[in-house]
């Protein structure tokens, strides 16, 4: 039996994207023990993996600076890992994996494809081709360690109560980390109104933080048939609810990946970013990715660059009608 350490600290969506790959590793190498090292709050996303997977959650604030990372390494060393897979490749994981490497432990890390991503998003002469997905990049790390896998993840579902099966449960996650990803809130509110005009539809609003909570609570108060779950559910409860939805509407954001984890179809809206960068949710139909074919997009991998046009036409040009048509097609 070998002990394999998989490391990925952030961001939420990227951590969730490791789950299908860890699942494949665990099911195809059941004789080995896999430990996932991440932030404590990520534990819930690994609850439904095979028994040979364990989660080690840490508070990174307890391991600040070089001395803190050395202390983390010494703590990990006590567990006698045989292999280390760095799915993150940032400064702190480089330090930890280097310590393992100089003490003789085989290590490999993710190749993020920075050059090809720059070519995809550069202002002139974009090279618009499908790049490797994050799933494949994670799988490549394992293959270089000597553990090739077939991607075979099967989403889990939390069944909806039978007396509620006739309702349409629709999730809407109107927010994302960066402006270049966020569909205009007035248009998303229009979509919410249109959906709740059908008494069969129930709309759940997802997000996080005080600002988003207030916006969604205002929508709930104003639009009958709308329920904001922000701040009202624990992480596992929220994931269970997402698994019961008929469809999730989200940006290129963590909510897309959370829904993918539990097999819920996603209507995703893409602005400054693009599925070509490799961040489409697991098992999602590319036909449900709504985007405009514009010469200037994609202009950013993460949506964090200001719009050079100044009008975010890539998002403002998508009509509520387009989004509603995709939702309705999935509900049928």
What does this structure look like?
This protein is α/β, with parallel strands linked by helices and 332 residues long. The protein folds into 2 domains: 3-145, 3-Layer(aba) Sandwich (Rossmann fold), CATH 3.40.50.2000; 166-331, 3-Layer(aba) Sandwich (Rossmann fold), CATH 3.40.50. 36% of the residues lie in helices and 15% in strands. The chain is built from 12 helices and 11 strands. The strands form 2 sheets. Strands 8-7-6-9-10-11 form a 6-stranded parallel sheet, with helices on both faces. Helix 7 (185-196) links the parallel strand 6 (168-173) and strand 7 (201-205). The longest helix has 13 residues, at 65-77. The model has no long low-confidence stretch (mean pLDDT 97).
Mean pLDDT level: 97
Backbone shape: globular
Q: Quote the CATH topology of the largest domain.
A: Rossmann fold
Cα(first) to Cα(last) distance is 48 Å
* CATH C-level name of the largest domain: Alpha Beta
Any idea what the CATH superfamily of the largest domain is called? Glycogen Phosphorylase B
Strand content: 15-25%
Helix content: 25-40%
* Integer-rounded radius of gyration: 21 Å
Output the helix-strand order: EHHEEHEHEHHEHEHEHEHEEHH
How many domains?
2
Number of helices: 12
The count of β-strands is 11
Largest sheet, in brief, is: 6 strands, parallel
Which CATH architecture of the largest domain is right? 3-Layer(aba) Sandwich
Instruction: List segments where confidence is low: pLDDT < 50 over at least 5 consecutive residues.
Output: none
Structural class designation: alpha/beta
* Strand order within the widest beta sheet: 8-7-6-9-10-11
